Amino acid sequence: MSNELFSVEGKTAVVTGGSRGVGLMIARGLVEAGAEVVISSRKLEPLEAAAAELAEIGKCTAVQADLSSQEGAVALAAAVRERFDRLDVLVNNAGANWGAPLADYPDGAWDRVLDTNVRGIFQLTVESLGLLRAAASEEDPARVINIGSVDGIRAPLTESYAYSASKAAVHQLTRHLAKRLASERITVNAIAPGPFPSKMMAFLLDDPDRRSVVEQQIPLGRVGEPDDVAGLTIFLASRAGAYLTGTVIPLDGGYTGAS
Asked: Active site includes 243?
């Protein structure tokens, strides 16, 4: 079996929310594997810092974008078109969360979370279709990889109602887009991560006692590591993953399978 089966060398990729957490793990993995990557994020300073760090390893540039609005999706896609004449891999990772007690859960949380986590994925994918079509072929389709969550598969422990609903929507949107775009040789899959070190999970994982409780619920006994999500992304982006579309893959150490 040739190593080229799992190669993303020379591919072009966009990773939204790529300045930290799971997005940065994915971007780093793609850059280290030889892809040319654009990362985006709302906050400019950490975005530029992450891009500079990754540029020391390989090819990476930054584009500031707020994907909670259609204007943000349009602007990011336009910036990518200025850099690339094709887009091999679009990783829709940018997301928002909001936690509050049930009786106090604010209406505005729904707008913010759903606009970013669901509408943002849809709008950026649509805006990127021209570049994805330019990269697509029978042997090696263009790839859209959406980042969902195990919270969209089973009810979470925290009171994050809009977030879990949005991630379930991401999973169904993935299936719907996969069915529509298969004939154009564009695959669409979702990764549903379990607990990974990130700002979103810091309140659980930075506290040793809380982290222990989380790890006890995971059959493999640990939280996710950067190579776990980078490896699955590279598989989906390489020729090894060319025949896979419309799937939602839990990346959770057995957490959802054991529930």
From this structure: no
Q: Which of 105, 163, 243, 255 is catalytic?
A: 163
Q: Which amino acid is at 93?
A: N
Mean pLDDT by 10 residues, the chain (259 residues): 86 97 97 98 97 98 96 98 98 94 94 96 98 97 98 91 97 98 98 83 66 79 93 98 98 87
Helices 226-237 & 21-32, crossing angle to 10 degrees? Answer: 60
Closest CA to 144 of 181, 197, 118, 111: 181
Distance of CA 162 to the CA centre of its chain: 18
Please report which helix (H) or strand (E) contains residue 188, including its range. Answer: strand 186-193
Domains parsed from the chain with CATH numbers: 3-251 (3.40.50.720)
To 10 degrees, the CA torsion angle through 56, 60, 63, 64?
-50
